[in-house]
Design a protein that fits this description.
- The complex is a heterodimer of chains A (542) and B (380).
- Chain A is built from 15 helices and no strands.
- With 542 residues, chain A is mainly α.
- In chain A, helix 3 packs parallel to helix 6, helix 7 runs antiparallel to helix 8 and helix 8 crosses helix 13.
- Chain A is globular, with a radius of gyration of 23 Å.
- Chain B has three domains: 90 residues, no CATH class; 149 residues, Sandwich (Immunoglobulin-like); 104 residues, Cytochrome c-like domain (Cytochrome Bc1 Complex, Chain D, domain 2).
- In chain B, the strands form three sheets. In chain B, strands 8-5-1-2-3-11 form a six-stranded mixed beta sheet, with helices on one face. In chain B, strands 4-10-9-6-7 form a five-stranded mixed beta sheet, with helices on one face.
- In chain B, helix 2 packs antiparallel against helix 3 and helix 5 crosses helix 7.
- At the A-B interface, helix 3, helix 8, helix 10, helix 11 and helix 12 of A face helix 2, helix 3, strand 7 and strand 9 of B.
């Protein structure tokens, strides 16, 4: 316990980026870091595509009547916005990009347990994405990302290729989950017992369990919808003998836990950054770790809160409602812990810290409105209105985006060995947080007024709030372009970051920045707890 | 329960939250909880975030060499910080669930209206006969139970001013109820995405004084479709969807088409029962046959094969038409074919009304079968 071993055999000239540079060496790589970087490029592309659709929708909604586009185009836009953002960005974003990159390093491994499967996961994701985009070019789908039956089985649009695309992406998710679980169990370095596992790894582990359990249900239900569409088998359409409510149960059995697939890794990123930028140990390590599994477990039994007005039994609604309150409590544990970690810290105000504050803000206010919508009688008015839209954009999209951007900036030097321009980044971060709040705060009020979601035209008295929302979305658009530009420029013109620019004591900084091809040249030894800034004191690999 | 009164509607919170008017008896109660929940949660969130900001300023990094102390917590604090919000949240839940049960339990004296959603309009049918598209006329001061279904995809019947929403699902009947507090016109919107013109699937609830409603109903029964008085008073705001304008007369409630069908739903239901062959197996005079008799069937407690008991309400009767083998009454064979896809939603409504009309007169099932959660005395 006395002295962390010096694993300083970094070789600045030989990194995972430059030891091989051919295209083939990238496409056939089994290196988790390269796979992570490729995932990062792909998910960022889809973030921009999904964001573009969102902006087009917001522009259409500037006027109450028809504007830029027809209702048909609008309906396809919101569907593709949802499909792309959920399955092509939010679900893979943090686990597949950052998880792949830092998880093996954090546990002191050379790579994930199944490197070939890891590459297969990337290709499956790519194929699924390609199929989805093909369906989009073909004619798109106008069902909403929820594919509610029986509309989705009778819609004349190209629903089937998009279902198939999402189905394939599901396998990518499952494989990544299996890989992480196995890696955490089998490849931990000496000294890294369960009580020392970094909290980002804990959240990825919890996420992976949900991915492995829930995603097959999604695959199954999407397949059944496709079967009903293509072979006319009556499963969900009552005119063919099916049950439309059954679909909703199956869909939400996956899609509610899917919220935690998206949010839990984000919580992990935030836990890492709060420790790194406050230079503090996490306030309650075990509470954060346990609450991860609390969310993962209880999250499986709350799906019915999406169906309070569907005609499910009143008793059922009660059970789902009260269980939803417990998810809120597990989330509250984490929020309290992050805030308490700031106490008596040494807090550096940087771009990741601003994203951290944005994360806490959005998760907390979004979570509190979640408590409100879990109150059954209130949800009757809010269900399927903009209140719900605003609620899940705050809690789910907001937190994933903030964690994604926070993690991106925090690990940018780790990944590429370059510093991003801090001042510009802080300005963009403030604009992102502010833009996000301005976009969705009016939508809560629109929901109160009774604006249903997925509406192409709306009552004129609601226009001013829509205009405010569009203004916020435009701010977001500018900020994202700004972030893209300065990050890309920093790859070429950025200052060298050195091995550990933040002075972080996260385990991933034991390896070089950027790491060597095999991460470590000798097996690392972990002899201190993660984020321990009080004793020993020195940042890793200083 | 001493529900809040009209004065609430002009309150500060009501305005700042931009809630619509409180036109139903349920609305003030829902809003009151709304204020409590949103007020408390927003205060909690603001407090926590303020603490985070204070820490940020107080403990900002002043020196690179400063080593923060290791801070951890004790179990007592953890329990306190979890117990407090959990208590608050669970309290919210029970307050809301109490109201939710009331929202889902129509009072026994409610009048029935059948609601059918189809792409992209609402059709309302009264048991007495008349039906209309787009406009639901109801009396004020009397509970109205809606029995909803859909002809194609899922729709959702949403009246913001009533804080009311209920999905209309093809192949089954769902129910909800409301009681309007004052005459007026209230917007109905479809809240479940249903295809191309989802955002134009609007309708109206026109609430009339009870005597006006009676008069209107009498006229409709006589088939005087063109005479429609009882318009909302002059100067009242028009509710108009942005696009859908089926009719040009601006004084006419939105998109209304009236049907005068003589004899009412009961008569239609009898015809459907004959045409679809129901009466080959079910009798209407109480004698046993291949299937259970329809006489006094409505609200009867039936013992099932499985040993369970069900009350033969609209939901059960519809389910038995669509999935007859799911809940077979004890003593009968599961020989009935499914009528899924065979019966129009309107035909189901007519059959239900026909079955409901078959009363021997001796029994009064209502007296023995009160709803579990009745309307609270003194509320209206």
């Amino acid at each position: 316990m006395d002295q962390p071993p010096a694993i300083a055999e970094r070789q600045p000239t030989l990194t995972y980026l430059n030891h091989e540079t051919t295209l083939k060496s990238w496409l056939l790589t089994r290196d988790h870091k390269r796979i992570g970087v490729m995932f990062l490029v792909l998910v960022s592309f889809f973030l921009f595509l999904g964001g573009l659709f969102a902006l087009l929708m917001r522009l259409e909604l500037l006027t109450p009547g028809p504007g830029l586009m027809t209702a048909y185009t609008y309906n396809r836009l919101f569907t593709l916005h949802g499909v792309i953002m959920v399955w092509l960005f939010m679900i893979p974003a943090i686990p597949a990009a950052f998880g792949n990159f830092v998880l093996p390093i954090m546990v002191g491994a050379k790579d994930v347990a199944f490197p070939r499967l890891n590459l297969a996961s990337l290709y499956l994701y790519f194929c699924g994405a390609l199929l989805t985009v093909a369906g989009m070019v073909w004619s798109g789908a106008d069902t909403g990302w929820t594919f509610y039956t029986p509309y989705s089985t009778i819609s004349p649009t190209a629903v089937t290729p998009i279902l198939a695309g999402v189905f394939i992406i599901g396998f990518s998710t499952i494989i990544t989950g299996l890989n992480f679980i196995t890696t955490v169990h089998t490849l931990r370095a000496p000294g890294l017992h369960w009580g020392r596992i970094p909290l980002f790894v804990w959240t990825l582990y919890g996420t992976s369990i949900i991915q492995v359990i829930a995603t097959p249900v999604l695959g199954m239900v999407l397949l059944l919808v496709a079967v009903e569409r293509v072979f006319n088998v009556g499963l969900f359409d009552p005119t063919r003998g099916g049950d439309p409510i059954l679909y909703q149960h199956l869909f939400w059995f996956y899609s509610h836990p899917a919220v935690y697939i998206m949010v839990l890794p984000g919580m992990g990123v935030i836990t890492e950054t709060v420790c790194a930028f406050a230079r503090k140990n996490i306030f309650a390590y075990w509470m954060v770790a346990i609450s991860t599994f609390g969310i993962a477990f209880v999250g499986f039994f709350t799906w019915g809160h999406h169906m309070f007005t569907s005609g499910q039994s009143t008793f059922g609604a009660g059970i789902f409602g009260v269980l939803s309150m417990f998810v809120a409590i597990f989330t509250a544990i984490k929020i309290f812990t992050w805030v308490a970690t700031l106490y008596k810290g040494s807090i550096a105000v940087t771009a990741p810290l601003i994203y951290l504050l944005g994360f806490i803000f959005l998760l907390m206010f979004g979570g509190m409105t979640g408590v409100a919508v879990a109150t059954t009688s209130l949800d009757v008015h809010w269900h399927d209105t903009y209140f719900i839209v605003a609620h899940f954009h705050y809690i789910m999209v907001g937190s994933v985006l903030m964690a994604f951007l926070g993690g991106l900036h925090y690990w940018w030097p780790k990944m590429f060995g370059k510093l991003y321009p801090e001042r510009t980044a802080m300005v963009c971060a403030v604009v992102v947080v502010f833009g996000f709040i301005v976009t969705f705060l009016p939508q809560f009020l629109l929901g109160n007024m009774g604006m249903p979601r997925r509406y192409y035209s709306y009552p004129p008295e609601m226009q001013y709030l829509h205009v405010a929302s569009t203004a916020g979305a435009s701010l977001l658009g500018f900020a994202f372009v700004g972030i893209l530009v300065y990050l890309l420029l920093s790859l070429r013109y950025g200052r060298e970051s050195g091995v550990n620019p933040w002075g972080s004591r996260g385990y991933e900084w034991y390896a070089g920045s950027p790491p060597a091809p095999q991460n470590f040249t000798s097996p690392p030894q972990f002899s201190d707890s993660p984020h321990d800034y009080s004793e020993g004191g020195e940042p890793h690999v200083a | 329960m001493n529900g809040p009164r009209d004065t609430d509607e002009t309150s500060f919170l009501h305005d700042i939250l931009m809630l619509p008017e409180q036109a139903s008896t349920m609305a003030p109660e829902v809003d009151q909880l709304h204020y409590i929940v949103i007020g408390t949660t927003m205060a909690m969130a603001t407090l926590i975030f303020t603490v985070a900001l204070v820490f940020l300023i107080r403990y900002r990094r002043r020196s690179e060499s400063y080593r923060p102390p290791r801070v951890t917590t004790t179990l007592a604090w953890e329990v306190l910080f979890l117990g407090l919000p959990l208590t608050v949240f669970v309290t919210f839940f029970f307050l809301g669930y109490h109201d939710f049960i009331r929202m889902n339990t129509p009072p026994p004296e409610a009048m029935d209206v059948y609601v059918m959603g189809k792409q992209w309009m609402w059709k309302f049918t009264y048991p007495e006969g008349p039906s209309s598209v787009g406009v639901l006329r109801v009396p004020t001061g009397r509970p109205v139970r809606l029995l909803l279904t859909s002809r194609d995809v899922i729709h959702s019947f949403f009246v913001p001013a009533f804080r009311l929403k209920q999905d209309a699902v093809p192949g089954l009947y769902t129910q909800t109820w409301f009681q309007v507090r004052k005459p007026g016109r209230y917007r109905v919107m479809c809240a479940e995405y249903c295809g191309l013109n989802h955002s134009e699937m609007w309708g109206e609830v026109v609430a009339l004084k009870p005597e006006d409603f009676e008069e209107w109903m009498q006229q409709q029964k006589q088939g005087l479709v063109e005479r429609r008085d009882a318009w909302p008073s002059e100067g009242e705001q028009e509710l108009k969807p942005a696009l859908l304008e089926l009719e040009t007369d601006s004084r006419q409630p939105q998109g209304e088409i009236m049907y005068a069908s003589r004899g009412g739903l009961v008569e239609q239901g009898r015809k459907v029962a004959v045409r679809k062959g129901c009466l080959k197996c079910h009798t209407v005079d109480g004698t046993a046959h291949i299937g259970p008799t329809w006489l006094d069937l409505y609200q009867r407690r039936e013992k099932l094969e499985s040993g369970e008991e069900v009350v033969a309400d609209e939901a059960y009767l519809t389910e038995s038409m669509m999935h007859p083998s799911r809940k077979v009454v004890a003593g009968f064979q599961a020989v009935m074919p499914s009528y899924l896809g065979q019966l129009e939603a309107a035909e189901v409504a007519a059959l239900l009304e026909y079955i409901k009309s078959l009363r021997s007169g001796r029994l009064e099932p209502r007296k023995t079968e009160g709803p579990v959660y009745g309307p609270t005395p003194g509320d209206r």
